[in-house]
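The protein record now logged underneath.
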Amino acid sequence: MLVESNCVNFDPSKKKSQIMSKPDVKSIIVRAANQYFSKFGFYKTTMDEIAKHIHKAKGVLYYHFNSKEELFNEVLKQELKGVKAELRKVINDSDDALNMLNNYIFTRFDLLHKSDTYHETLKADFFEKYHFVENVRGDFAKFDKEQLYFIISKGIKEGTLEISDLESTVDLILMVMNSMEIPLFLQDKYSEYIDTGKELASFIIRGLKS
């Protein structure tokens, strides 16, 4: 005897799409926010505009992010995540410490030149008012320092670099790179100053050679 079942048939593909919907929406929000922050900046971008752009209610944005500040923080985090991934490739693709250092410095400048959200955080008035970006910026600064430690240490082991104070040398290189960010990125002098930057990096590398 056949018994008719009232159970609804299970559709695994439907359940999978439901599971994937939340992170997918979050990614869409972040991508849209990146476009708006890059074009208009933090101040002139509203959550309403982002919501309209992706055809969602504003409440959907606040479901994933508590505030515009938190959303901006996530955009910056994802942007710098991509920068770090590319810089890791420089480390992995170079055998010689001198070439690695040179490639790292200029790949870093090139990547950050294209990172509009990062540029926004360089504006002094912005950073003083919005400290929510400190953790993401601090994480990138830590990453930066770790990579330079690795490169310089490698050069010392290879005998190609002669360093008396590793930490001071790394800090000096970081200070030089960071001091160039304002004119290169905010003052739009990247194309004008990049050759000078290359000469400066060559000068630093020559000074570190054993």
